[in-house]
Amino acid sequence: MSKLLTLVFCLMSIAVCARAQDITGLEKIGPVVSFTKGANAVTLNCADGSQVQLTMLAPDLIRVRASFTKPVSTRDHSWAIARDNWDTPRWTLTESPETISITTEEVECVIHRSPLLISFRDAHTHEVINADERPMMYDAKGTLTGMMFDPAAGMFVAAAKKLGFDEHFYGLGEKAARLDKRRGSFVNWNSDTPGYTEGKDPIYQTIPFYLGLERGAAYGIFFDNSYRSYFNFGRSSQERAWFGAEGGEMNYYFFYGPTIKKILSRYAELTGHMPLPPLWALGNQQSRWGYYPDTMVERVVSEYRQRDLPLDVVHLDIDYMNGYRVFTWNPQRFPRPKEMNEQLIKQGVKVITIVDPGVKYQPHSAVAEQAANSRNPELGPKEKSYYVFDQGLEKNYFQHRKDGKLFIPKVWPGDSVFVDYTLPEARKWWGDLHRAYLDNGVAGIWNDMNEPSDFVDQTGKNQSDVISYDEGEKSSHAKNRNVFALLMARATYEGLARLRPDRRPYVITRAAYAGIQRYSTMWTGDTNSTWDSLALNIPMFTTLGLSGEPFVGSDVGGFMGRGDGELLVRSYQVSFLAPFCRNHKNIDSYDQEPWRFGKYYEDIIRKYLKLRYRLLPFLYTTLEEAHRTGVPLFRPLVLNYQNDANTYNLDDEFMIGNDLLVAPVLRPDVTRRLVYLPEGKWYDYWTNKEYKGGSVVSVDAPLETVPMFVRGGSILPLGPEMNYVGEKVSEPSFVVYPDDRGEAATSLYEDDGLSPEYTNGVYRRTALHFSGKQKQIQISVSAPQGTFKPQPRTASFIISTALSPGRVLLDGQTVPRAADGGKGWSKNDGALIIRILDDGRAHKIEIE
Ligand code: MIG
User: Fold this and answer.
1) Best substitution site from 320, 321, 448, 510 to test ligand 1's pocket, by max atoms within 8 Å of Cβ?
2) Structural contact between residues 90 and 123, judged by C-beta atoms closer than 8 angstroms
3) Which atom of ligand 1 is nearest to the CA of 587?
4) Contact at 8 Å (CB) between 547 and 171?
5) Which of 144, 175, 227, 339 is the least crowded, having the fewest Cβ atoms under 10 Å away?
């Protein structure tokens, strides 16, 4: 009998899964019967009472909103959207009996009336970029209701697009999957998934934004719907790519490139730009679940300093708190947090504390107080009353269930409560609570467990009847789960900015929804100390970058399980160029700080950490580009070489900005690997050996060496070797890598690295151009833009050449040969070095 039942259940669940993939039974939106034209929008009225609204936001950005069997709602709100005041682009409307066409300067949107099918075409070539495979759909008959998280929360809505034979898909934020998402199928439902491996889905974040690329032309779709959503890029059906959600509106933004970079800029405009974090956030970071007491933290830092290993940040995991109570300090383990932090800051190290959403449920009662007093007097005052719980309860900021009862999940403190971050006052209160950290010298905040994770049940079922305020809509968990972390990060960011207006906030989050980049950076959660997990770093970082999240990183060495020296070194060879470079480890695993596997490995790790600091000017310049344009620094090759099909599915190489290509080793015992170099000239970073791109080359990759190539045509700005940001004056050296025509260029971005003043023009951008034709070399340095003034310093230019110059001129004046390290020119290791005073003016250097 029980066997039979099991069989029945198995068959049922297979049927449910199969149905989850099948949208063909859904009701289609009715044909267009009439339409109205507004200043920036067209509203289509359908035979079934449905309405579709197309809004022209920019020449390359059109929003599609559909409401099934009823008019489009007047409430139009999304936590993801940063901008709603668009200047209406020029557009025209034409009709035929079959179609209505809307044309902007870049996109032609053709609406077929019956059946209602929308296609987007290039306004110039009229080529179809993206077209509906069938009309937009809704689940009128409840076909998919059985598989829905909360059938009461809404109705399944979906849109299906024709799938190109050679169409590639990118984006969707944090997915444990390959770079090209073609033929994949994904779900978005923020989930705590420790030890995830490739294919695990969903994991922590929801970024319902993807890019399609075919014949070199890209478009983007942002399906701004926070319900559990589905994206299917031709998994088990070659005809269509579709997306849908278990409630809410069919509401998507269509972006046209044709370049991916242009789409990412537009996406950043729509959902917000990443503000610059403090420069030290690019420094090396060390963490471990279990750094306590304070003397242990000090010991870790002094190990770093004694071993001459660079370090900017150390993280305190949940053990710093008093009984896992957020916004408290453990009086035994960290009795004097302020003094500890002051000591560490003197050594150039900042502390980041973890903050979880779970607030210990601790009713304040006389009886409890008495009990605590008599039985555990040593536990201190927090046992009697906990101000965070008291205040939140009094102000009614905690989440409730539908029946009005407080929602009490179980997390680290045991019984806990969560804040309803959709309440503006609650966000303000939460933000202000961070005084407990800032007043004690903490420099940044790490948000964990914000899916939100609940030990009672990780699927969210235990939370399904939780109601959020949601601007008075009092909406369901089904709608609000995926934006919980976004709003918590927002409360945190805004709190830090308010409490310390002269400092840039630095927040790290695990879960997210689109728009998170406005408030927080991220890391990829609980990975494994395995080679497979390491290999996933690359497609995950690059995919996050293509999804609006530029500041990414993963626990270096992996979080769970046992690694070894080789894995740790190879892991640093990926992460030393990731924006977030932090070694972190689970509480019950072996130690994995850089020195734990012996000197041989430690020496190699030191080499890469030192190199990271030398590359800081380059990394920071590229980070600023990500802030300003939305184009990430950690890039898949396809982002820079969109017309090169060899890059479409490249998962084991990446680029930093436009100029540095890295091909790490992602398997044990490997000392050589194949590297694809795109068209152009390339230089081996280590040997300066030149390569002609457009082919695969085989290169040496012993454990000491990560294959790294510099693009011919670039100039890499380097800084001094340092053990923490600010240790030395950042004197730039510009290393020149000419292209085939002997040209190279770059620009260097600098600012104070700490304050928000860069948003008021207090930065310095210096453009450099190099040309070297027939022994005639010229370097021009532009007059810098911006008002930032670095400390007095020199700047060096490094040109690889066997020749000794006849003469070197600076602005027409002869430059002398330098005496030891001073200003002037010198020769070293096949390189010509010219060192000048950096006086913030334009200069021309000529070499004959
Ligand atoms: O249930 O705070 O991903 O980085 O060390 C585990 C303890 C909770 C999960 C985080 C991890 C962190 C750990 N946390």
Assistant:
1) 448
2) no
3) 5
4) yes
5) 339
CB 243 within 8 A of CB 159: yes
Residue carrying the six token digits 């030290």: 280
Question: To which residue do tokens 């987007």 refer?
Answer: 120
Measured CA to CA, the distance from residue 335 to residue 280 in angstroms comes to 26
Catalytic entry in 27, 448, 625, 751: 448
In the residue annotation, 451 being an active-site residue is answered as: yes
Q: Which tokens hold the place of 646?
A: 């060899």
**Nearest CA residue ID for atom 5, ligand 1:** 289
**Do residues 283 and 724 lie in contact, with contact meaning Cβ atoms separated by under 8 Å?**
yes
User: Which pLDDT score is estimated for 7?
Assistant: 52
Ligand 1 pocket member 411 (CB < 6 A): no
SS3 label, residue 248: coil
C-alpha span between 646 and 641 (Å, rounded):
9
Q: How far from 49 is each of 30, 473, 557, CA to CA, in Å?
A: 8, 24, 56
Q: Residue range 261-285: average pLDDT?
A: 98
Q: Is 721 helix (H, G, I), strand (E, B) or coil?
A: coil
- Whether the link from the prior residue into 202 is cis, omega within 30° of 0, is yes
Share of the chain above pLDDT 70, in %: 95
Structure tokens at 280: 């030290």
Of ligand 1's listed atoms, the one at least distance from the Cα of 287 is 5
Distance (Å, rounded) from C-alpha 446 to C-alpha 435? 15
In terms of Cβ atoms closer than 10 Å to its own Cβ (0-12, 13-18, 19+), residue 92 is: exposed
Q: How far apart are CA 527 and CA 546, in angstroms?
A: 21
Nearest-angstrom CA–CA distance, 257 and 236: 28
CB-CB contact of 670 with 632 (8 Å): no
**Span 262-287, average pLDDT:** 98
The token pair at 748 is 């260097």
Which distant-in-sequence residues (6+ apart) come within 8 Å of 492 by Cβ?
355, 430, 431, 434, 445, 447, 505, 507, 519, 520
Candidates 292, 222, 229, 180; CA nearest to 23 is 229
663 CB less than 6 Å from ligand 1?
no
The Cα–Cα gap between 201 and 204 comes to 9
Told to judge if 167 belongs to the known catalytic residues of this protein, a careful annotator would answer no
Helices (H), 659-728: none
- Whether residue 355 has its Cβ less than 6 Å from ligand 1: no
Length of the chain: 848
Residue with tokens 């911006």: 786
- pLDDT-derived band at 376 (thresholds 50, 70, 90) equals very low
Q: Could you say which DSSP state residue 309 is in? A: -
Q: Are strands 444-447 and 350-355 parallel, antiparallel or unpaired?
A: parallel
DSSP string covering 312-346, please? -EEEE-GGGSBTTBTT---TTT-S-HHHHHHHHHH
Ligand 1 atom closest to the Cα of residue 289 is 5
CA 339 to each of CA 354, 505, 666: distance values in angstroms, whole numbers, following the listed order: 19, 22, 42
The CA distance from 386 to 665, in Å, is 50
User: Is-contact 611 662, C-beta < 8 A?
Assistant: no
* Average predicted confidence (pLDDT) for the chain: 94
448 is annotated as an active-site residue: yes
pLDDT in tens, 643-675: 999 999 999 999 999 999 999 999 999 999 999
Name the one residue in this structure whose structure tokens are 């090759």: 637
Q: Using a 6 Å cutoff on CB, does residue 686 contact ligand 1?
A: no
Q: What is the pLDDT confidence band of residue 22, given thresholds at 50, 70 and 90?
A: confident
CB 436 near ligand 1, within 6 Å: no
Say if CB 659 and CB 711 are below 8 A apart: yes
Q: Which pair of tokens denotes residue 437?
A: 């950290």
Which of 249, 451, 494, 653 does the annotation list as catalytic? 451
CA of 448 to the centre of ligand 1 (A): 7
pTM of the predicted structure, to 2 decimals: 0.96
CA 449 – CA 410 distance, rounded (Å): 12
pLDDT for the residue 146: 84
- Which DSSP string corresponds to 821-833? TSSEEEEETTEEE
